Amino acid sequence: MQDRWSDLVAAAEAQLPHGLVLDGELVVWDTEAGRLSFEALQRRAATRARGARALAARWPAYFVAFDLLQQGGRELLARPYAQRRALLENLFSEHALTAPWTLCPQTTDLAKAREWPESWADVSGVEGFLIKPLTRGYLPGYRGWSVDCTSPGHGSTWWHPDWV
In this predicted model, what pLDDT tens digit does every residue of 7-35 receive, in sequence order? Predict the structure, then answer.
């Protein structure tokens, strides 16, 4: 797997501290189409080492981080999401993380959150939103969060006041 994502491996070695475990989404940007591309992600994942560098140049990969599960070798799973999120934001700030690392936008402002399905629908390739309760710890293998698909044909029924 590392040979297919050597650009991310190099960025991790250069920018991220040891003992870190992030939860997030690996995405690929299609520079020609000007949008996120699941097809390009699949092509990069299926490519052997020989063609990986050319595809990395054509379709750069990014990691959109939305949770911090371990830092400095310390497991953070039992901590509530609000604490893990604060640590994640601090990690991005302290280490001045830049591409390919992207901090997933987050809000607790209900009015702002209600605007996101429309405003984020303009970003090509964004297909939904992840909603996590602020007070819950991380439960491996458990889908205790909600995802709303906003692509055409899907409704937006994800609003739950305790989750925003």
Answer: 899 999 999 999 999 999 999 988 888 88
The string of pLDDT tens digits covering residues 112-152 is 888 877 776 666 666 667 778 888 998 887 665 555 554 44
The answer to whether the Cα torsion of 67, 71, 74, 80 is positive or negative is negative
The helix or strand, by DSSP H or E, that contains position 28, with its residue range, turns out to be strand 21-30
- Mean pLDDT is lowest, of 62-76, 93-107, 131-145, for 131-145
DSSP states of 58-122: HS-EEEEEEEEEEETTEE-TTS-HHHHHHHHHHHHHHTT--TTEEEPP----HHHHHHHHHHGGG
Those residues with Cβ within 8 angstroms of residue 142's Cβ, 6 or more apart along the chain or in another chain: none
Distance CA 10, CA 14 (A): 6
**Identity of residue 4:** R
pTM of this structure: 0.80
Of the candidates 130, 138, 137, 140, the residue with the CA atom closest to the CA atom of residue 163: 130
Residue 67, exposed/middle/buried by CB under 10 A (0-12, 13-18, 19+)? Answer: buried
